[in-house]
Amino acid sequence: MASISNLSRRALETDTPVMIYMQQLLRGATGCMSLAQGVVYWQPPEPALEKVKDAIKEPSTSNYGPDDGLPQLRQALVEKLRRENNLSKSSVMVTQGANQAFVNLVLTLCDPGDSVVMFVPYYFNAYMSFQMTGITNIITGPCNIETLQPDADWLEERLSRKGNESVPKLVTIVNPGNPSGSYVPDPLLQRISELCKNAGSWLVVDNTYEYFMYDGLKHTCVEGPHVVNVFSFSKAYGMMGWRVGYIAYPSEVEGLGAQLLKVQDNIPICASIIGQKLALYSLEAGPEWVRERVQNLIKNREILLDALSPLGSSAIKGGQGAIYLWAKLPNNSDDYEVVRWLVERHGVLVVPGSASGGHGYIRVSFGGLVEDVCKVAAARLKQGLEELVNNGMVLN
């Protein structure tokens, strides 16, 4: 009988997805409430859902579509990029969500042996994408301890380093951040882009949470022959299960689109046709439809800030964007053990920070529950953290 040693090192040396661990914890606990997965509580726009009912019976829905996406959707996205994101020199490829978009890019832009840069805390699925494609030299840079924004001074030093170390092939950031809930202001984004351009490195920016900005902050994008932007319909339009995202890549880079198509044709061939049609119809609702719902999350954020208060105000970061708060546990705490204990003793689930390189932290999502339900989950979390802190417990 074959043993696990006969499996690929790429698979064996890739981290186990933290969300699979989260699902296992939920299955083993009755009545547990989740503040873990990055989801929103709303459904896609009702008019879009009505339109897609009619599209189900169209023969084209059950057939293959163009590898890079339905022409009507791609055109609508090109117009959206120009109008909303100030990206006028980008072509579009539609993918099965933003995660698949990122894998496409890693396979197209990087080779095994290349070095890449991420910032801690990083998005765990992006880290795994590098691991499973043979990119073993993953350089993790620091973020500002207060703002959780990428440290551009560190990046400048790393990209300009001389000697035997190769220049990183790719730098990636999520704006606003997952798991940090922070955002990258335009001057910093521009500086990071310029540093990558001067070094000859690709910059890949994940803009999944572009509409999820609070307190008057504004999301921006950057464009250039070295920049690729990733977007998603999942959170904005409540389309998590429909799996539609897209890549905005520089039109001026000759051959890039053709190489992306090679990867696309060998993974999904094309994104789900019914999902693409729903995405097209959802765009008709416009960004204000999304922003109205996003602003309703501010109350959830306040509820969960209170729930995390036993850890102390200085321990809680993020929340300026996206749907996450990032909090430091008492010193020497094993975040995986704390997460397991919260599930078993208090019936509430959060994400261990170690999955994102942040040992001793937790990520809390405020997007997935309506306000009244969020209050119940927050009360459980607060009770658990009070017990952890007041009793001087250190779970390790």
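Above is the first protein from milestone M3; the second protein from the same milestone is given next.
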Amino acid sequence: MKILVTGVAGFIGFHLANRLLHEGIQVYGIDNLNPYYDVSLKQARLAHLQPQAGFTFQTLDLSDRPGIAQLFQDHAFDYVVNLAAQAGVRYSLENPWAYVDSNVSGFVNLLEGCRQTQVKHLVFASSSSVYGANTKVPFAVGDQVDHPISLYAATKKANELMAHTYSHLYQLPTTGLRFFTVYGPWGRPDMAYFKFVKAIVEGKPIDIYNYGKMKRDFTYVDDVVEGIVRVLSHVPLATRLPDLSTAAPYKLYNIGNHSPVELMHFIAVIEQVLGKTAEKRLLPMQAGDVPATYADVDDLMQDVGFKPSTPIEIGIQRFVDWYCQYYQISI
């Protein structure tokens, strides 16, 4: 079995590739190694993957149409997991074109490659951001998500729509996964929990938006990877969807902990693990952000028998352990 993992030098892509390789599966990974955050961290992740049997890496951008077409011509992939994307809600306010190039044009290139080579199943990363300012909780995949409040969220919703179109037109099995605030070792430095730990360790203040009145369905990365692996082998069949006149082999799932945590409690857990108290700067809500996320994971549990469950106390301890080891810090 040969699986293409895009964004393989990224946070989730690295963990997924590592899991698949340990199971004896061939992984072909691509990544453009863009400088949105510290490239040396991406290279360090790759350094852990490259010595492993069955792993191949190519530097390649999803927006490179000829390059992606050639990739699919040269290799017969059984499955594809698309984790490559321009990430971050706030950065989309500064550089919208990066999101269109990677998340929209790049995704079409990938869809074309999958359909031309009859890939068995495309699993792609969506985001809880698609729920926008929805107030109904928990967020369910059947909820209306027609009012995104960031360009990042709009591109992820566009991915879901394009994937459904290809599933309908070409019977390409596709599954979208709406991730909820993924955290853990080897995480992204632009994420709040990473910034919190870094600032507290360095004795600097942390910025807390919406005056701390935030809730997040924090999801530990190993749980996300378990969900991806289970969904990958659960190929959707062509079934009639509610309120649609067409049927397609297409599915959406939330992957979240189904247990939203108050941001101030999350920070308190970090303080407890570090043995240090943070200096807190309470600030207003940032543009494009939402006050709360909360995943309904009933469909995931029903279809693949799994729901994330790692408590934040364990997840944060593992992240801090990795952070101190990676950056050679004693606390």
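Note on the second protein: The mean pLDDT is 93.
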